[in-house]
């Protein structure tokens, strides 16, 4: 995640796993800013194709756009983009065609970034990509790029705790227009950043943020260096504030019952000079159904621990071993509970990679075309016939219609749910009773006990009378119900 001196901050949970962002100056910008009417580059004027800036199933969906608590001294309180945790040097792709307008390589203190100008059907859009070490590995200033073209590599430059891509969308000019929530923006363009993630971190923003004075500092009456001082705060004084609030470089806080403003570089998310023993830290855990029963491959020799933190080791598994998620994780998804043989323990997700199976072979099943299903539990609609990238969650009790395609083993069925078509586990679909098929006799015809003229006549169906097909078929004969009687008759006399 990227930090701006005039912005706000993210949740402490997300800080534990992913980046803390670049400290770069710029004017305030939020989605509430009026949209500019900048002239578009006519050479790019067209409705654009949009793509995911990272390859599906290779990244973790972390800190989202919006207010947050300050995670580092000098950080902001509003996250302007979306964080996607990925492997170092993973390829970054242009989200749409456009021209490269800004480039800066990163350092340990400053985040590297690439900014691309787009003309989306006459509307000026800019996308920004952060935290690469070098911004010049794949593009140069003024270069025209295509959607899906590699423009750089994932890095860890600037105040960042792990390699990731911080992705922003701006309506109008970068730092001159409005910072758009990028996930919803791309979803409207047909790209599901959240659904394509290998792991989704819980979206959590506290109602209040607890900080500490980073040094002896003045509590001001207004957000200004010239304002009167209400009191002088000592280092490590406890400060309480709301997430997302920052004005003129000052954070509104309450300390010792007095409310005022503290310069942001004097605000720390943790107490200075104190480190709590690991064993005393209580880390909140959650039920994480998305990992239940899912296989993961270890990317290095990995210690399985008794608690979701560095501590007692219950077992060590080698690199490339397979473990299975049991449906629990820490709130920030830094740790996941897994099973290895007879051992169930906690593992760092940093060293786990989800095993994505190849989709099963598909067949066409005529009887499933138009078949109505009832969803038996909250169920993911998936992009392929395999546990992997999801399209959306389907609610229990809702209806879906079969397209006529299924896997050879029948474990997956392709369905249409609302406006979306995808794959669902057949085990969680219940077929609705088919609508009765009614036929009319074209002439007087005998209804018989069996499918031939050798069988006894049960009744005679008069011309124009209606019968209901009950599903049986033998050659040209069909099984029907006529009034209270059932039997067989030749289909050539029905229409």
Automatic annotation (TrEMBL):
<dbReference type="Pfam" id="PF08239">
    <property type="entry name" value="SH3_3"/>
</dbReference>
<keyword id="KW-0732">Signal</keyword>
<dbReference type="Pfam" id="PF01551">
    <property type="entry name" value="Peptidase_M23"/>
</dbReference>
<protein>
    <submittedName>
        <fullName>SH3 domain-containing protein</fullName>
    </submittedName>
</protein>
<dbReference type="InterPro" id="IPR003646">
    <property type="entry name" value="SH3-like_bac-type"/>
</dbReference>
<dbReference type="InterPro" id="IPR016047">
    <property type="entry name" value="M23ase_b-sheet_dom"/>
</dbReference>
<feature type="domain" description="SH3b">
    <location>
        <begin position="434"/>
        <end position="495"/>
    </location>
</feature>
<dbReference type="InterPro" id="IPR011055">
    <property type="entry name" value="Dup_hybrid_motif"/>
</dbReference>
<dbReference type="InterPro" id="IPR050570">
    <property type="entry name" value="Cell_wall_metabolism_enzyme"/>
</dbReference>
<feature type="signal peptide">
    <location>
        <begin position="1"/>
        <end position="31"/>
    </location>
</feature>
């Amino acid at each position: 995640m990227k930090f701006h001196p005039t912005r706000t901050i993210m949740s402490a949970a997300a800080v534990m796993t992913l980046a803390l962002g670049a400290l770069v100056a710029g004017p305030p910008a939020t989605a509430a800013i009026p949209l500019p009417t900048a002239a578009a580059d006519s050479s790019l004027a067209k409705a654009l194709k949009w793509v995911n800036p990272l390859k599906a199933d290779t990244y973790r969906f972390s800190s989202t756009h919006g207010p947050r608590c300050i995670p580092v001294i000098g950080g902001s309180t509003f996250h302007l983009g979306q964080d996607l945790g990925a492997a170092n040097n993973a390829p970054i792709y242009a989200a749409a065609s456009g021209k490269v307008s800004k480039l800066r390589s990163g350092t340990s203190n400053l985040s590297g970034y690439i900014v691309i100008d787009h003309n989306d059907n006459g509307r000026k859009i800019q996308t920004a990509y952060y935290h690469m070490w070098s911004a010049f590995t794949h593009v140069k200033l003024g270069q025209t790029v295509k959607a899906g073209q590699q423009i750089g590599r994932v890095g860890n430059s600037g105040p960042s705790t792990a390699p990731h891509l911080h992705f922003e969308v701006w309506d109008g000019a970068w730092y001159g227009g409005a910072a758009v929530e990028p996930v919803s923006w791309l979803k409207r363009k047909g790209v599901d950043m959240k659904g394509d993630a290998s792991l989704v971190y819980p979206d959590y923003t506290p109602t209040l943020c607890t900080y500490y004075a980073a040094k002896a500092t003045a509590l001001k009456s207004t957000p200004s260096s010239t304002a009167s001082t209400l009191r002088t705060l000592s280092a490590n004084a406890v400060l309480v504030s709301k997430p997302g609030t920052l004005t003129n470089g000052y954070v509104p806080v309450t300390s010792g019952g007095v409310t005022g403003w503290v310069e942001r570089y004097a605000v720390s998310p943790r107490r200075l000079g104190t480190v709590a023993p690991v064993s005393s830290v209580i880390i909140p855990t959650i039920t994480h159904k998305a990992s239940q029963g899912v296989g993961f491959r270890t990317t290095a020799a990995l210690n399985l621990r008794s608690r979701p933190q560095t501590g007692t080791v219950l077992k060590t598994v080698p690199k490339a071993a397979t473990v299975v998620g049991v449906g629990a994780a820490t709130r920030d998804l830094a740790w996941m509970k897994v099973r290895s043989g007879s051992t169930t323990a906690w593992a760092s997700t940093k060293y786990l990679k989800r095993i994505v199976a190849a989709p099963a072979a598909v067949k066409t099943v005529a009887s499933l075309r138009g078949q109505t299903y009832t969803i038996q539990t909250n169920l993911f609609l998936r992009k392929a016939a395999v546990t992997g990238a999801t399209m959306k969650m389907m609610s229990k009790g809702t209806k879906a219609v079969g397209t006529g395609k299924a896997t050879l083993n029948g474990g997956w069925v392709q369905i249409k749910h609302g406006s979306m078509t995808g794959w669902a586990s057949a085990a969680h679909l219940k077929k609705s009773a088919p609508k009765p098929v009614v036929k009319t006799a074209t002439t007087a015809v005998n209804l018989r006990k069996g499918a031939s003229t050798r069988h006894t006549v049960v009744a005679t169906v008069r011309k124009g009378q209606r019968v209901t097909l009950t599903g049986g078929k033998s050659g040209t004969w069909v099984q029907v119900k006529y009034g209270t009687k059932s039997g067989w008759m030749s289909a050539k006399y029905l229409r």
